[in-house]
Design goal:
Layout lengths: L1 H17 L7 H9 L3 H21 L5 E15 L4 E19 L1 H69 L4 H36 L23 H11 L1 H21 L5 E13 L11 E13 L7 H68 L4 H36 L4 H8 L5
Antiparallel strand pairs: 1-2, 2-3, 3-4
Helix pairs in contact: 1-4, 2-4, 3-4, 4-5, 4-7, 4-9, 6-8, 6-9, 7-8, 8-9
Length: 441
């Protein structure tokens, strides 16, 4: 019982050390990472660029106008009869055009709008990836902190066992073997403590780099921890959601639409184009012209009309372009099918991983109680002489290993739930907030 009270005290002290007043919640670090994470910022910039690109494509259906001006001076010499004249010409005009029938331009606009959808899907994927990466880094630090706390508690327990073995040897109630076994176990735990401290340091640096802060300190989970139930509990529902909602599948589906539009645009190479054109031009010659020298003249012209352009033959370029786009369309369709199968498999694996993790947590919770009972029994048996020192040391090692495994299993279930929603394409910040509510605040 003394060992159990000592372990509880050690863990309480460890929790107090890893949860200072300035500790950050998962949502707080997530908000910090969103304004710092380069992949997410890149995806956001790509969306802005795609919106601008679609507006560029819209220009192909809108009227265009241009203002032109020119000042020219020319000198003309005629030998028979001898004439020499210098003339200046001022020209100013405005010309406009409105596409009436340009099917390729309309299809280009549709492709530009679909490009916005692709960029939005990429941003959604980057957002979900950021949620998982921050959560992974957060739980990695908590797991490293738990490992260090358990190793330090085990070191304290082994130290007590080593001291007891030395006392018993001095009074002649135990052999030197007990002391050496305890010393060897103590040295091993000390090495594990050094490794655990280094692992925690590395995990904290990784989290700092991810969120753009120094000295991050995650809040620990509240214990006892009620693990959230997996809803819905049917794997087929998750798979069905992934077939349409997963950002990567959405990108592939849109890529197929764009490929089909590209085929339609290639087929317009045989079609005519019709534009409405209008112009107004003014030409002024202050010094006159060759036919009217010395007379200030001004010529004004206005025009409006419809221009028709009908392709006749382009060296089979249109036919070959259509063949190319049809092949690319088949490729996009095959890529979509392959991605849907891959996403479905990943979703099933993530679902069963969460289910397995939940069962593992329950088993480890029972194993923790059993390991504690076994340790208490071995300590009592050692005191009455029916157990040897190595039995107690082994029971201690089993108890602390079980506690480490249980803590890690809890983190794996929570993170696995997020990864399952990511695989299905339904992960949102609300899911992270639900996990954030499980922290000790």
């Amino acid at each position: 019982m003394y060992l159990f009270r000592s372990l509880s005290l050690s863990l309480a002290l460890g929790t107090a050390l890893v949860a200072p007043a300035q500790a950050q919640s998962l949502v707080e670090l997530l908000n910090a990472a969103r304004s710092y994470d380069a992949p997410w910022q890149s995806a956001k910039a790509q969306l802005d660029a795609s919106i601008a690109r679609a507006d560029q494509a819209r220009a192909g259906l809108l009227p265009s106008a241009a203002l032109s001006g020119e000042i020219a001076r020319a000198k003309t010499d005629v030998t028979m009869p001898p004439i020499s004249a210098s003339m200046t010409t001022h020209t100013l005009g405005i010309n406009a055009a409105q596409p009436l029938y340009r099917p390729a331009n309309r299809i280009t606009l549709q492709q530009g709008l679909r490009g916005i959808d692709v960029a939005q899907a990429q941003l959604d994927a980057a957002t979900q990836d950021l949620l998982v990466r921050v959560s992974q880094g957060y739980f990695d630090v908590l797991a490293a902190q738990d490992t260090l706390a358990f190793v330090q508690a085990q070191k304290a327990a082994v130290s007590e066992q080593l001291a007891a073995a030395k006392r018993n040897f001095e009074v002649g109630t135990s052999t030197i073997t007990d002391t050496r076994e305890a010393q060897a176990r103590y040295d091993l735990v000390t090495a594990q403590e050094v490794a655990a401290e280094n692992d925690l340091r590395v995990k904290k640096l990784a989290l700092d780099q991810l969120v753009g802060r120094n000295g991050t300190q995650p809040l620990p989970l509240a214990i006892p921890l009620p693990l959230p139930a997996l809803e819905p509990a049917d794997v087929s529902v998750w798979v069905q959601q992934s077939q349409d909602g997963q950002p990567l599948v959405r990108q592939a589906a849109i890529a197929l639409d764009v490929a089909q539009l590209e085929t339609q645009k290639a087929q317009t190479g045989h079609l005519p184009t019709v534009d409405l054109q209008a112009g107004y031009n003014v030409q002024r010659s202050p010094n006159g012209t060759m036919t009217l020298p010395g007379i200030n003249s001004r010529v004004t012209s206005a025009s409006i009309g419809v221009a028709l352009n009908l392709p006749l033959f382009a060296g089979f370029a249109v036919q070959n372009r259509v063949k190319e786009t049809l092949a690319l369309e088949d490729k996009a369709r095959a890529d979509l099918d392959n991605l849907r199968r891959t996403v479905a498999q990943n979703t099933r694996a993530a679902f069963y991983g969460v289910q397995s993790g939940q069962g593992q947590v329950k088993a480890l919770e029972a194993a923790e109680l059993s390991s504690q009972s076994a340790l208490d029994a071995n300590k009592l048996g050692y005191q009455v002489g029916v157990r040897i020192n190595i039995d107690v040391l082994n029971a201690q090692s089993q108890l602390y290993q079980t506690k480490r495994d249980l803590a890690q299993a809890r983190y794996n279930v929570l993170l696995g739930t997020l990864k399952l929603r990511q695989a299905a394409g339904t992960l949102s910040e609300a899911d992270v907030q639900a996990i954030d509510a499980l922290l000790a605040k």
